[in-house]
Input
Amino acid sequence: MKRHFVTIKDIARELNISVATVSRAMRDTYDVNQETRQLVLKKAQELNYKPNFNATGLVKNSSHNIGVVLPTITNYYFSTVITGIQEVAYKKGYNIVLYITNDSAEREMDILNELSLGNMDGLLVCVSSDSRQNDHFEQIIADGIPIVFFDRVAHDIKASKIMQDDYHGAYQAVEHLIQQGYKKIAHIAGPAGLLFTERRMEGFLAAMKDHRLPVKKEWIIHSGFSRDFGEKDALQLLQSRTRPDAIFAVNDRKAIGAMLALKKKNIRIGKQIGIIGFTNDPMCEIISPSLTTVEEPALEIGRKSCEFLLNHINKKHFQVQELTLPTKLIVRESTMRG
Amino acid sequence: MKRHFVTIKDIARELNISVATVSRAMRDTYDVNQETRQLVLKKAQELNYKPNFNATGLVKNSSHNIGVVLPTITNYYFSTVITGIQEVAYKKGYNIVLYITNDSAEREMDILNELSLGNMDGLLVCVSSDSRQNDHFEQIIADGIPIVFFDRVAHDIKASKIMQDDYHGAYQAVEHLIQQGYKKIAHIAGPAGLLFTERRMEGFLAAMKDHRLPVKKEWIIHSGFSRDFGEKDALQLLQSRTRPDAIFAVNDRKAIGAMLALKKKNIRIGKQIGIIGFTNDPMCEIISPSLTTVEEPALEIGRKSCEFLLNHINKKHFQVQELTLPTKLIVRESTMRG
DNA sequence: AAAGACTTCGAGAACGTTCTCGCTGATATA
DNA sequence: TATATCAGCGAGAACGTTCTCGAAGTCTTT
Output
């Protein structure tokens, strides 16, 4: 249990020099003799010295921890984003510590009021789908803790934001459907109130309008993000007076749910009803027919978010900035009429 | 950039009491008057005081951080394990900080020699598939940092280990194939040298032996864990002199790779060749035909690992212990001959 | 009334670093 | 020779807590 650590003092004692000099040597400041420096480094190695981050953090007033607050990690998009975050954080010597909200606004609140959060150098957050109030973020920002939002961003908060190009991705998706000859296009969307959901909706509507296609209210359904909701939404669409001949889903999971539901009803995906998703989850290639989708730059979003945050943390002055990364249409079988 | 924090001293000054008393009040020790305690708590709330973990950590010699070292997080099993870990860690006030090895022994070494690791209160690790040398773990253990291994454990290390019941899971899987009438059963395994791979192999061999079925060398293939390897292995099996009529894959991803390859060759899964996987990845339900598999208790493994580690960290004396959690056969279409 | 026990609190050291200031001795400048 | 410059280093404070020790006051016991 009790472990004893080698400190800078031990090195100083063994070398008969002051702790100040050892500290200088470790940090390679200008005012230390290179010879003594080598001596110190050698001795440090020999004693297996590891710096104590609590001590450095205490004087420098930083923890080298950045908090990542997100709804879940058990899906392709989020786990990939985290991988990107971790990659750049690790390189710069920062730890990332995870906070999972389970997509619950209540839990999100709890987490943001958490003690430990105050000890983060900065925060990367993707808001939960049912959080409407944003006061808790305001509070954190007021406390002076840098925040970068990614993917699902809070509307009204003045903070840096990184998203994929949801509008154009959606536009391109719908245009692809239209080019394939589908005309009666439905959209199964996410919960209302989330910016990226709205942007995809706008892209959908714009593409329909530009191609002079009618949009029926009953072809637009708002619900949750999971596969189950995709199934339900698809079944609901089948009930509508005029049945759509294509579905644009807000994400791949819902698209896959819809496919599963339609397959059960013996509807031939592509031929009878075309389907397109969003994300490019590996599942797209596994399901049959394979799912056409819009690829999101998840890894890059993770990397860039973290880079932004580290800039915010280390720069004296930082501008709030927004970044939109491009998406890419990936055509597969689910939108093939042939 | 510069943020000013409310400290215990501020509270003491405003209340005209000593820092020691404030500290006592915050920790609710026995030797503090309940009235003054309430006063302190009220003032703390009022000033929005947040304890500084660097300071407490420095005197208590702990960081309340536990490191999680694992190959990747972008798959179902690992992301679920992490969710379990995070769940209990959060409850106990510990942060989890992620280290991703990308399944490379070299990177694993780098990470374990990392400075920041020395500042973890404990480690949860799942070794990378190509790591043979375990000296770096010995070193950490010698440093007195508690370690718990999960899933992929290092053979020879004396440390606590948590795994699913790979042997019986495999046995049950193969027995299920046999009961379905398959006789020529192949096993596409993981890389040799990993304990759980070997255990699944043993389960496979035992079931075959108990049912007096022959095992051909060419029906056993060792390779990587990814879908690509599953495809390759399946194609290789098709080349063998006597073609197997069923495949037991070491995990779902390989099983799915194999299915995809066989489907491309117009082989009817189930009828001509039965396939069973391991993990119960959500993809099993998505692919067609759906994939029979052995469910792993991923969430529970995450939870238990973390509980073990926290015990190790907080108990004065701890016994190294090993825990094996049960698996569960989940029958779907890929092993239906009818 | 004296002694003991208990409650409540303060002073100050300690944790392992970094940082500021100033000192020493050597070298360069006048 | 006297003075300025500079390289290299040490002493000690500071960061925000906890912890140990002891003191003051109150209450109980005899």
